[in-house]
Amino acid sequence: MRSTIHPKVEIGHVHLRVAKLDRSIHFYTKWIGLQLLEQKGNLAVLTADGITRLIVLEESSDTVRKPPRTTGLYHFAILVPDRSTLARVLLHLLKVGYPLQGASDHQFSEAVYLADPDGNGIEIYADRPREQWEKAENGEYKGVTESLDVEGLLAEADHAPWTGLPPKTKMGHIHLHVAHMHEAEQFYHQGLGFDITIRMDNHALFVSAGGYHHHIGLNTWIGVGAPKPPENALGLRLFSIVFPHEKELEKAIESLKAIGAKVEWTGTEAVTVDPFGNRIQLRVQKA
């Protein structure tokens, strides 16, 4: 029997393999507006509030470029606290001339898209109030992609000097390329216990905890049966899922084991790997 995940579960951080650590630190601090929390050797930790890690960057000498059309990261999504913050982010990116890859209205959120120097996809978005999120007749959210009202959004910017992302910024969701939708559903829905919030035929699935529009997106847009990238490929090394307390973490571990997933317990956290090679750290929220 499937165990439903706790409603307060969220995505914690992403850990990326990068080609040049200094270049990536410059990008994420100067252009994105995060702060450098810690740098030690080949690792750097980035934060928005000076306490919570949002992105970990790792430079390794043996990394290789991620082959095209392989499973892994589609994008990770940085959630800003309100529409006016998103407006300031967009205005900043336009002023510095950093190339954008898109800007969309998804009905429940508004978003801009870009990529870091290693090609990792990034979404920066703001949610609309939850009472405005529309549902279809089947109870799932209406997943739409329409053009963003850029002029309307920029009108929300106060044109104050850019000072970076505010402290309440967090990792909102992560979106992955997968090889097979039925395996993705079994792992993330049956195993981890996320609820299905949007299903797009047989090519995309969105799941969440607590009625959120999605914490994890899954798609086969690069092709059904796509292979895994090499273990040392640039890009996503792991992402974390954060539980409110240890009892809920233990419940998720048992549910994953029930579907045959391997889970390694380190004493303070657990690590599992989905069927497509994506490493996931399962941990409890720090007090």
Stretches where pLDDT is under 50 for at least 5 consecutive residues are: none
Number of folding domains?
1
* Total helical elements: 5
The CATH class turns out to be: Alpha Beta
CATH fold descriptor: 2,3-Dihydroxybiphenyl 1,2-Dioxygenase, domain 1
Beta strands, count: 17
Rg: 18 Å
Overall mean pLDDT stands at 95
Strands ordered across the widest β-sheet: 9-6-7-8-5-10-13-12-11
Please give a handful of descriptors for the protein shown.
about 290 residues; alpha+beta; 2,3-Dihydroxybiphenyl 1,2-Dioxygenase, domain 1; 9-stranded mixed β-sheet; 8-stranded mixed β-sheet; VOC family protein; Glyas_Fos-R_dOase_dom
List the helices and strands and how they pair.
Elements: E1 10-18, H1 21-31, E2 35-40, E3 43-47, E4 53-59, E5 72-79, H2 83-96, E6 102-105, E7 109-115, E8 121-127, E9 146-147, H3 150-154, E10 170-177, H4 181-191, E11 195-200, E12 204-208, E13 216-219, E14 235-243, H5 246-258, E15 263-265, E16 270-273, E17 279-284
Parallel strand pairs: 1-4, 5-8, 10-13, 14-17
Antiparallel strand pairs: 1-14, 2-3, 3-4, 5-10, 6-7, 6-9, 7-8, 11-12, 12-13, 15-16, 16-17
